């Protein structure tokens, strides 16, 4: 067991290598399907839709069926189309329709019976009227005999290839028609030089055109498709065996005729390739060709059948071309899925096969592919087993990425440029799984060592904490104690630390220590009772920690033991609410009008010299001056300002609600529709402030309050400035890094467009649950904001609409000249988007 733990990474590497060797030997369907998906991606890189082609499709499409009539059509339409195409002297015509039965025309049969009856009448008794009737009947019979018309068109063209189809039924049906046997023998590939190694499929039953068509066609070819394990068609089966005959595919026959190669000159060489004179077509041992696609659907010239039949297409377009008459209409011939297109007509696929053969665009799967795959698995197994575990994390990660890129790019290069399909899915997945396993093992080993080190350091921190406590440095002692696991002995030490804080009249800190103990054991001694009493006592304190009776800079009228509430100016202080950007915030009440207020304070300590204290006081009142000029329903209202006992204060509107920081996580995001209204309200409020010459400079979710009545308000103009005054300076960076504009970071003079950028960043976070920029360090974060475009928010929240993204992009332009120039413009866009969304919702409700 000890050896296993010590060399766990090595055992992992061996196991993963053996596992993938077994997978490769067994050829797992799942992994083979992944390989084919990768094959399809690489195939798209080979396509060349703009390349020249001598192949033209005459498409029996939905439009033609709609104009001519429901399928199947009378065969006279096909005959007429053949006659028109044949006038242009095409190289060869492929008619991809199997007419295996004569056309069912009951009227024609009845006319034939009537003609037979009149013919049997004694000529001496036949008058001229009966003779004319008989002639008319015979003429009608000829006009209605569509099979004869099509037969005559085929015979006249002399270059039409017809399809056959093989069925792989369990019972083989013997071919009894000697004429058909003779035709099949003539049309088959007779020169098979490696018949012993050839494993092409064998048909037990054949579906052929009617004899009248079959015997006068230029050639025949099978139209069987070879579906892969994932349902796509990537191969063309060039040969099919039927009762000893090797029948070429429809596409091979067309290619051979276009090259003037007769059937008896088509042969299969010993190296598994089909030879058409100078053209050698590589195949596998089953006579299959990997199809290289010219491009997706509609890569070949195609003309609707209706337009061709009605002479709307110039005949010369078919001259010396390979013309395929093929259905694509729904319900006539089902489309197939190929690497080039999810939906492709059979005729388009055949055109790609012929194009690949005539242009020598072949993809080869070399005979050594399997050997190369097993060799790669073994080589990567050695790296996973013996090299990766010894590398440092960064170097291992870089090595992993480099090998990953090498495998993908090399196989892609060989496929696209060298026509070689080398399968890499097995080694690729082995490399990924192996690396993840090694990293996981190293992580757990590191964690185990870390726990050991932490256990050893806990005693050191405990001793240091006790030393600091004995020296009276209680904050440092508490910091060290929090790094020690809390057991009964530690609870006792922490309890004594809380008592020491109480002795020094630092009641809030004492309460924090008791609360820390309570997290682990709420029943320990009287920590809950002590914490509750200390919190109640601290609620009557105005000046914070240490500013009590007897404390440094204390005032006797603000004692923790007083039964009356302390006051600032005329405002009664009820309790502390929190700490703002410049000081402590308390809940207060104006006794004159019985109005609840929030009181923001800042104490000018003795630590500052008189000049610094005066400068800070001026800064504080500039905040009150700038914010006090604003009167807007979405901006917190300032009521009063003053100073007392070295404590400056601002009385402002008390807001019952919570800031938007709560709604910046993915699990707690607000509905997108509400976010649009809230941000529009904020934008309008900012536009109002900007009109007054006031820039907020710190727009972020924590500075936006969402009240219980659904109204949002901007708070904390603590770093705002009156931009029109001489007090505005450049070179000073103010704001929260994740939301800062590039001009704030660079120290440029900012204007309202800086707030618009911050608002865009906040909108990004409220819609996606993540900030637009990240960095491992403040410098890296600022670099991201300055130089790197923000990510597409739809990658984080796919439900976002395009207008959402456009508004965010416009607001967060690096160049402020390209940004919204006024916040009201952004608000207008948000309102418009909201109305459009409301309209869509109403329409869905009506239709639903």
Automatic annotation (TrEMBL):
PROSITE patterns: PROTEIN_KINASE_ATP, PROTEIN_KINASE_DOM, PROTEIN_KINASE_ST. Keywords: ATP-binding, Kinase, Membrane, Nucleotide-binding, Serine/threonine-protein kinase, Transferase, Transmembrane, Transmembrane helix. The keyword Transmembrane applies. GO terms for molecular function: ATP binding; protein serine/threonine kinase activity. Residues 571-832 form the Protein kinase domain. Its EC number is 2.7.11.1. InterPro entries: CHASE2, Kinase-like_dom_sf, Prot_kinase_dom, Protein_kinase_ATP_BS, Ser/Thr_kinase_AS, TPR-like_helical_dom_sf. The keyword Nucleotide-binding applies. The chain crosses the membrane at residues 7-26, 370-388, 394-416, 428-445. It comes from the Bacteria. This is non-specific serine/threonine protein kinase. ATP binds at residue 600. PANTHER family: MITOGEN-ACTIVATED PROTEIN KINASE KINASE KINASE 20-RELATED, SERINE_THREONINE-PROTEIN KINASE NEKL-3.
């Amino acid at each position: 067991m000890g050896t296993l733990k010590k060399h766990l990474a090595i055992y992992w590497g061996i196991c993963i290598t053996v596992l993938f060797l077994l997978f490769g030997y067994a050829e797992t369907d799942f992994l083979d399907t992944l390989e084919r998906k990768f094959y399809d991606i690489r195939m798209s890189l080979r396509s060349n839709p703009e390349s020249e082609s001598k192949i033209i499709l005459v498409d029996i499409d939905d439009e033609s069926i709609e104009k001519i009539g429901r399928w199947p059509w009378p065969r006279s339409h096909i005959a007429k189309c053949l006659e028109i195409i044949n006038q242009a002297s095409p190289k060869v015509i492929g008619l991809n329709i199997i007419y295996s039965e004569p056309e069912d025309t009951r009227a024609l049969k009845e006319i034939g019976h009537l003609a037979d009856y009149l013919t049997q009448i004694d000529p001496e008794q036949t008058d001229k009227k009966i003779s004319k009737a008989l002639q008319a009947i015979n003429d009608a019979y000829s006009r209605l005999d569509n099979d004869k018309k099509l037969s005559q068109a085929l015979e006249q063209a002399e270059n039409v290839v017809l399809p056959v189809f093989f069925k792989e039924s369990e019972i083989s049906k013997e071919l009894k028609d000697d004429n058909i046997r003779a035709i099949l023998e003539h049309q088959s590939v007779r020169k098979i030089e490696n018949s012993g190694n050839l494993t092409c499929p064998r048909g037990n039953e054949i579906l052929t055109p009617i004899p009248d068509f079959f015997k006068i066609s230029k050639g025949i070819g099978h139209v069987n498709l070879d579906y892969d394990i994932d349902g796509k068609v990537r191969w063309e089966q060039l040969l099919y065996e039927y009762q000893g005959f090797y029948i070429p595919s429809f596409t091979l026959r067309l290619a051979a005729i276009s090259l003037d190669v007769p059937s008896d000159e088509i042969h299969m060489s010993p190296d598994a390739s089909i030879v058409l004179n100078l053209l050698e077509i590589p195949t596998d041992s089953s006579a299959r060709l990997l199809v290289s696609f010219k491009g997706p659907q509609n890569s070949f010239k195609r003309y609707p059948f209706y337009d061709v039949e009605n002479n709307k297409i110039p005949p010369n377009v078919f001259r010396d071309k390979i013309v395929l008459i093929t259905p694509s209409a729904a319900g006539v011939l089902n489309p197939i899925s190929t690497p080039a297109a999810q939906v492709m007509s059979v005729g388009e696929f055949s055109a790609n096969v012929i194009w690949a053969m005539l242009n020598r665009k072949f993809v080869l799967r070399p005979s050594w592919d399997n050997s190369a795959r097993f060799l790669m698995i073994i080589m990567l197994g050695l790296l996973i087993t013996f090299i990766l575990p010894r590398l440092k994390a960064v170097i291992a990660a870089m090595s992993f990425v480099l090998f990953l890129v090498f495998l993908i790019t090399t196989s892609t290069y060989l496929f696209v440029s060298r026509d070689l399909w080398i399968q890499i899915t097995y080694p690729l997945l082995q490399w990924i799984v192996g690396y993840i396993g090694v990293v996981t093992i190293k992580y757990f080993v590191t964690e185990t060592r870390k726990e050991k080190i932490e256990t050893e350091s806990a005693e050191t921190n405990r001793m240091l904490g006790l030393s600091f406590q004995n020296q009276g440095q209680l904050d440092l002692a508490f910091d060290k104690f929090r790094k020690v696991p809390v057991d009964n002995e530690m609870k006792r030490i922490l309890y004594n630390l809380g008592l020491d804080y109480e002795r020094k009249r630092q009641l809030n800190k004492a309460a924090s220590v008791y609360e820390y103990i309570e997290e682990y054991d709420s029943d320990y001694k009287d920590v809950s009772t002590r914490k509750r009493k200390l919190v109640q006592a601290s609620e009557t304190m105005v000046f914070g920690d240490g500013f009590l009776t007897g404390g440094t800079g204390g005032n006797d009228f603000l004692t923790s033991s007083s039964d009356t509430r302390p006051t600032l100016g005329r405002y009664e202080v009820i309790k502390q609410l929190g700490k703002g950007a410049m000081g402590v915030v308390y809940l207060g009440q104006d006794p004159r009008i019985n109005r609840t207020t929030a009181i923001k304070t800042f104490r000018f300590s003795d630590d500052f010299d008189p000049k610094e204290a005066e400068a800070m006081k001026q800064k504080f009142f500039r905040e009150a001056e700038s914010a006090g000029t604003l009167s807007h329903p979405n901006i917190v209202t300032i009521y009063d300002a003053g100073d007392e006992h070295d404590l400056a204060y601002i009385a402002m509107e008390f807001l019952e609600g919570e800031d938007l920081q709560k709604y910046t996580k993915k699990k707690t995001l607000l509905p997108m529709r509400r976010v649009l209204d809230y941000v529009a309200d904020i934008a309008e409020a900012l536009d109002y402030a900007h009109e007054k010459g006031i820039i907020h400079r710190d727009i972020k979710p924590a500075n936006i309050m969402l009240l219980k009545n659904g109204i949002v308000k901007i708070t904390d103009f603590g770093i705002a400035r009156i931009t029109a005054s001489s007090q505005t300076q450049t070179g000073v960076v103010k704001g929260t890094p994740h939301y800062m504009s590039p001009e704030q970071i660079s120290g440029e003079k900012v204007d309202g467009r800086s707030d618009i950028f911050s608002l865009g960043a906040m909108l990004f976070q409220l819609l996606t649950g993540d900030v637009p920029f990240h960095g491992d360090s403040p410098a890296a974060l600022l670099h991201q904001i300055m130089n790197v475009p923000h990510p597409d928010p739809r990658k984080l929240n796919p439900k976002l609409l395009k207008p959402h993204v456009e508004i965010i992009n416009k607001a967060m332009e690096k160049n402020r000249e390209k940004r919204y120039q006024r916040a009201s413009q952004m608000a207008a866009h948000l309102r418009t988007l909201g109305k459009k969304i409301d309209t869509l919702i109403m329409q869905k409700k009506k239709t639903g």
